[in-house]
Write a structure and sequence with these properties.
Length: 143
Amino acid sequence: MKTKRINKQVTVAAGFLFLWWAPGLACAQDSAPGSAPPPSLASPEARVKKGPLDDFAGLTYTDEQRAKIDQIRQTTRQRMDLVRKDEKLTPEAKQAMLEGYQRLEIGQLFEVLTPEQQAEVRKKAQARHAEQQKKQNRPPTPR
C-alpha cells in the first residue's frame, strides 16, 4: 500500500518537473480534456481547436515509438475513464485530474521522442503559445 502511494507521488512530482522544464508544452489549459489520438491519427473534427497534442502532428515515428505511444495512450485512457466514472469526485476535481493526466501523457509522449523530434515539438509549442498570447493581446513571455 505504501509503495503505491510513493509511486503515485513520484509520478505526480515527475509531471510537475516536466511542466516546469517544458512550459510551452502545457500552456493550453483551456483545451478540453480527453485522450484523443495523436493529431496525425485524429479526425479533422478533432483538430479544430489547437492544443498541446497538435504539436506532435507531422512527426514520423519508428515502430518502437508507436508501440510505446500506444501503451502510454491506453494507460492514460484507462486512468481517465476511472476518473470520469468516479461519483465521489466533484466536477472541479474531475476536471483537474483529467487535465493532470493529459499533461502527464504529453510529458510521457515527449520522452519517447528523439532529441530532434523534441526540438521540433518545442518549436511548435512555442509558436502556439505566442499565437495564444497574441490573441489575448499580451506580449509573449520570454523563454
